[in-house]
Design a protein that fits this description.
The chain has three domains: 85 residues, Rossmann fold (3-Layer(aba) Sandwich), CATH 3.40.50.20; 63 residues, ATP-grasp fold, A domain (Dna Ligase, domain 1), CATH 3.30.1490; 190 residues, 2-Layer Sandwich (D-amino Acid Aminotransferase, Chain A, domain 1). Helices cover 31% and strands 25% of the residues. The strands form three sheets. Strands 9, 10, 11, 12, 13, 14, 15, 16 and 17 form a nine-stranded antiparallel sheet that branches. A four-stranded parallel sheet has the order 3-2-1-4, with helices on both faces. Strands 5-8-6-7 form a four-stranded antiparallel sheet, sandwiched between helices. Helix 2 packs parallel to helix 3 and helix 3 runs antiparallel to helix 4. It is globular. Bound molecules: adenosine-5'-triphosphate (ATP) and magnesium ion. The site of adenosine-5'-triphosphate has 16 residues, from strand 14.
Length: 387
């Protein structure tokens, strides 16, 4: 393949995966008059609704990913659970960012943790698990509680279980081993907060890191992101430096989202990586002068990346399927939008399910406390839970 050229507006970006991340990427691309084509098996997928074209086929189809590459100028993917071989097939025809090798590392927890260890990045102690005995030995080494996880295909806490006592080892192993994938166990980190940051690395190696967000999870799914995080400035700076270090050492071109635990002693341990836009970066759409999606468009096209600035304290709350279920499919958007600084983002999913990410609300305010109050109140109003 010849050297990568600068792609001016009018060029076409291929997106593997048609979820909300692809949708918001396509909207940012459209803003700058780039075209997008998405590969997704669902003809009604969130990205397809806003893209210029769709190839309706399986992610694992090499023919489909090759045909995506042929009809576009550069290719990216919006989730990790895509088939790395079909992404590689696309990369033989057109540039793919982040590279298939970054995808292979980050889609497998053991490869990812080993790569982080090798790079000298602090992670919570872990062991590879191939038998019940491995798990028993790990319990002796790591102590309880520990978190057993499938090495691949996990998301939103699926494919993981917390083990708190010896008696639970066997059935926990059986439970996760049933899926037939490799397993990893980690020491449970009694974190004081969870933090994440998204780092962009351009083709020329330029790096820019978004302000880290403090994340509150509910039922293993991101619920609220708070920016700036309510921790000392020095920890925030260290988190940004750590993320930049990871981007360089893994040779990422694109975005890398870094999820971290912050301990009571303000120590940082990296939990996991995602080589794509991240739910915890949705706040950037209204809170920063450049969003994570625009930044990715810039990387993919070879444009200069921006050093993103936080415009004002910003809080994001996720809108999960429950909001629809509990209101018979009729959330009260009008009341939710009455409050100041509220931006509503919906993903165009026609079917709601408990735990399904349907949209989010961003609130920009003068203080973090105000943003947090307004964001949760706005969601409660949509949810018809507020008087
Ligand atoms: N070792 C650990 N110690 C303490 N809590 C943990 C640990 N591992 C996971 N968790 C909790 O479970 C959440 C989900 O775990 P993780 O990020 O590994 O899985 P995931 O399924 O990939 O989630 P997602 O895709 O939503 O990021 C974490 O954000 C954290 O709250
Ligand atoms: Mg996670």
């Amino acid at each position: 393949m010849e050297r990568e050229s600068l792609l001016n507006p009018g060029s076409t970006i291929g997106i593997i995966g048609g979820g909300q991340l692809g949708r918001m990427l396509a909207i940012s691309a459209r803003q700058m008059d780039y075209k997008t084509i998405v590969l997704d098996p669902d003809p009604a997928c969130p990205t397809g609704q806003v893209a210029d074209g769709q190839i309706t086929d399986a992610y694992s189809s090499r023919d489909a990913s090759r045909s995506l590459a042929r009809s576009t100028d550069v290719v990216t993917y919006e989730f990790e659970n895509v088939d790395a071989d079909s992404v590689s097939a696309a990369s033989e025809l057109k540039p793919v960012h982040p590279s298939p090798s970054v995808l292979r590392t980050t889609q497998h927890r053991l490869h990812e943790k080993n790569a982080l260890l090798k790079a000298g990045i602090p992670v919570s102690p872990f062991r590879e698990i191939t038998s019940v005995d491995d798990l028993k030995n790990a319990a002796t080494d790591l102590g309880f509680p520990m978190v057993l996880k499938t090495a691949t295909m996990g998301y939103d806490g699926k494919g993981q279980v917390i083990i708190t006592r010896e008696e639970d080892i066997e059935h926990s192993y059986d439970l996760l081993n049933a899926g037939g994938t490799e397993l990893i166990v980690e020491q449970f980190v009694p974190f004081s907060i969870e933090l994440s940051t998204i780092c962009a690395r351009a083709r020329d190696g330029t790096i820019a890191t978004f302000p880290p967000s403090e994340n509150i999870n509910r039922n293993h799914i991101l619920d609220i992101s708070i920016v700036p995080a309510r921790i000392p400035e020095s920890v925030i700076e260290n988190a940004r430096l750590l993320a930049a270090d990871i981007a360089v050492q893994l040779n990422v071109v694109g975005l890398i989202a870094v999820e971290m635990f912050i301990t009571k002693e303000n120590e940082i341990l990296v939990n996991e990586l995602a080589p794509r836009p991240h739910n915890s970066g949705h706040y950037t759409m209204d809170g920063c002068d450049t969003s994570q999606f625009e930044q990715l468009v810039r990387v993919l096209t070879g444009m200069p990346i921006s050093e993103p600035r936080l415009l004002s304290p910003t809080v994001m709350v996720n809108l999960l399927g429950e909001v629809w279920e509990d209101t018979d499919g009729d959330p009260d958007w009008a009341r939710a939008l009455e409050l100041p600084g509220v931006s509503l983002h919906l993903y165009g999913k026609s079917e709601s399910r408990a735990g399904r990410k349907m949209g989010h609300i961003n609130v920009v305010a003068d203080t973090v406390e105000d943003a947090l109050y307004i964001a949760t109140e706005s969601r409660d109003r949509a949810w018809r839970r507020s008087r």
